[in-house]
């Protein structure tokens, strides 16, 4: 990887949880099913065996991907951000576009991005444009639909613990 894989503590916990669920629960149950199906004789027409092997490959691929992402992860807690006047990793940024449409976006790791929930990946074009922005800044972004200009109207971070 040429750049760090920034991720919030909650995002890392979600990756870890998925890994543990696949590795400790789903994979062993599937191995048992495949062993049972293999014991039934002819494997060429055995749907449980064929599907089980296919699903096992999918799980192993996903486990490998999750393992690599967790190894490369750099966990950053947005609540510890010292410069809260600018948009950095973990910030919730409220922006307004040329049509006066107001949106609030949270800058999160690429692995935890969910546009429907307003969480955009740190390396997305809009997130890159918003990095380091302060309230009142105008930012121009090249999007597939064309160039858009946004004004930053608010920046918030999670409260610091303790």
Question: Which outline best applies?
Answer: elongated
Derived from helix and strand composition plus strand pairing, the structural class reads alpha/beta
What is the CATH class of the largest domain?
A: Alpha Beta
**Percent range for helical residues?**
25-40%
Radius of gyration: 22 Å
Model regions low in confidence, pLDDT < 50 over at least 5 residues = none
**Average pLDDT reading:** 90
In the CATH hierarchy, what is the architecture of the largest domain at level 2? Roll
| CATH homologous superfamily grouping of the largest domain | Transcription elongation factor, GreA/GreB, C-terminal domain
Q: For the record, give the distance between the C-alpha atoms at the N and C termini, rounded to a whole number.
A: 35 Å
Please summarize the sheet with the most strands: 5 strands, mixed
Which fold name fills CATH's third level, the topology of the largest domain? Chitinase A, domain 3
- Tally of helical segments: 3
Strand content: 15-25%
Spell out the helices and strands N to C: EHHEEEEHEE
Number of domains: 2
Strand order across the biggest sheet?
A: 5-4-3-7-6
> How many extended strands?
7
GO molecular function: DNA binding; RNA polymerase binding; translation elongation factor activity
InterPro entries: GreA/GreB_C_sf (IPR036953), Tscrpt_elong_fac_GreA/B (IPR028624), Tscrpt_elong_fac_GreA/B_C (IPR001437), Tscrpt_elong_fac_GreA/B_fam (IPR023459), Tscrpt_elong_fac_GreA/B_N (IPR022691), Tscrpt_elong_fac_GreA/B_N_sf (IPR036805), Tscrpt_elong_fac_GreB (IPR006358)
Domain Transcription elongation factor GreA/GreB N-terminal: 5-75
Domain Transcription elongation factor GreA/GreB C-terminal: 86-157
